[in-house]
From TrEMBL:
It comes from Idiomarina rhizosphaerae. NAD(+) binds at T197, N228. Homohexamer. Substrate binds at K78, Q99, K102, G153, S371. Keywords: NAD, Nucleotide-binding, Oxidoreductase. The gene is gdhA. GO terms for cellular component: cytosol. Belongs to the Glu/Leu/Phe/Val dehydrogenases family. This is Glutamate dehydrogenase. Pfam families: ELFV_dehydrog, ELFV_dehydrog_N. Residues 190-437 form the Glutamate/phenylalanine/leucine/valine/L-tryptophan dehydrogenase C-terminal domain. The record marks D154 as: Important for catalysis. Catalyzes the reversible oxidative deamination of glutamate to alpha-ketoglutarate and ammonia. InterPro entries: Aminoacid_DH-like_N_sf, Glu/Leu/Phe/Val/Trp_DH, Glu/Leu/Phe/Val/Trp_DH_C, Glu/Leu/Phe/Val/Trp_DH_dimer, Glu/Leu/Phe/Val_DH_AS, Glu_DH, Glu_Leu_Phe_Val_DH, NAD(P)-bd_dom_sf. One of its GO terms (biological process) is glutamate biosynthetic process.
Amino acid sequence: KQTSPAQVEFYQAVEDVLESIEPLLEERPKYREHSIIERLLEPERQIMFRVPWMDDDGKIQVNKGYRIEFNSALGPYKGGLRFHPSVNAGIVKFLGFEQIFKNALTGLPIGGGKGGANFDPKGKSDAEIMRFCQSFMSELYRHIGPHTDVPAGDIGVGSREIGYLFGQYKRLANRFDGVLTGKGELWGGSQVRKEATGYGVVYFAQCMMDDQDDSLDGKRCLISGSGNVAIHAMEKLYELGAKPISCSDSSGTIYHDNGIDLDLVKRIKEEQGGRLKEYLKTHDDAEYTSKDDYPEEGHSVWRYEADIAFPCATQNELTEKDARALLENGCKYIVEGANMPTTQAAVELFIESGVGYGPGKASNAGGVATSQLEMAQNASMLRWDFEEVDEKLKEIMSNIYQDAKRTAEEFGHPNNLVLGANIAGFRKVADAMLEQGVV
Ligand code: NDP
């Protein structure tokens, strides 16, 4: 029953899970008898706080800060922080809810949480970003800890922000703890963490394709976004012989039939903090579509002929109309880098049509899995090299794929990775909750 109509994304995420687990609930009535669903839907703790900070003109600005500690049945709360003007209680709640099952799927001992602020980092100076992060952490530090709650990055929170957040934590707590992941490599960060979500999505796609005796070699790929996940997905795709031909930001889409010039995208987005439109200054044979010219109820990034689509920007960015266009253009696989990027109607269409569909909570779990590897390195005071972490990431992605696939088969829906991932994740959390009593 919906009790807060404003939290539409949260209800969308809940419906997706509840529909999938119906056959499991029939088979194991114990979950209903012990009110597992009712308990799971209510976060263990929600923290909302004021984040006051001073801008470069000396004016005091105020933002809303959030941390949802959703479920700790499997381990300390773990999940990123998002800084974006669209952040509100419903968005953080949907992300936290998804995180519970994603983290369970990794097979690692981590619970689910998420947080952020309705702060817009765009156009802010470095000093403003630092003052914001310091103010945000001045409240958050009392709620987190290496065995309690370990935040990481998400949209708008990369290594620079994690650095400022960690600096302030250390100052307030007087402890050098593994309390955040995605840290700089000089001070406790893990190799491969930056690349992990994007690389992991591609490893997951590889598993799906192996099962069809198919490979990434020569495949044309559409990617949305041009941030951390999109850039590292494109990097791995090139490494494995595929060709990314589109990417986007919140202002528009680039299509480049020769293949996206990834070094240029990195320069524009990572070094200059610029807009993708600038890509045309170097490549006049590429095509740019401004957001204002996108097709009605859809996105230009999905309207090209390609073999695989990787949504890597944000929620609900691939609509039913986009899904139809992808299918008409011969797309065979959709593998999600972002959280819940595909609308419910589009997901149903993909599943009905029988194309390969990798849901984000399984396919983008490489980021949080590598965060847990960072926690393990911090706890043991060891540092593993790049190859070692990358190998573990690959193995974890393969295990997640096999787990979701096996579970889908067990419940009579082979190839339905949505059902498989939801049941496999839910079952682990629910069993841990049963074993821990009424908590
Ligand atoms: P970044 O902030 O690095 O990049 C986000 C990208 O998406 C940017 O290109 C941004 O455009 C675009 N974008 C953001 N919001 C919108 C919007 N409302 N409309 C259109 N474009 C938008 O974030 P990440 O790459 O880290 O995250 C991308 C997705 O992946 C998110 O859904 C996140 O939750 C998910 N994810 C991230 C993980 C991680 O390890 N970072 C782990 C698992 C999931 P612009 O440059 O214009 O802002």
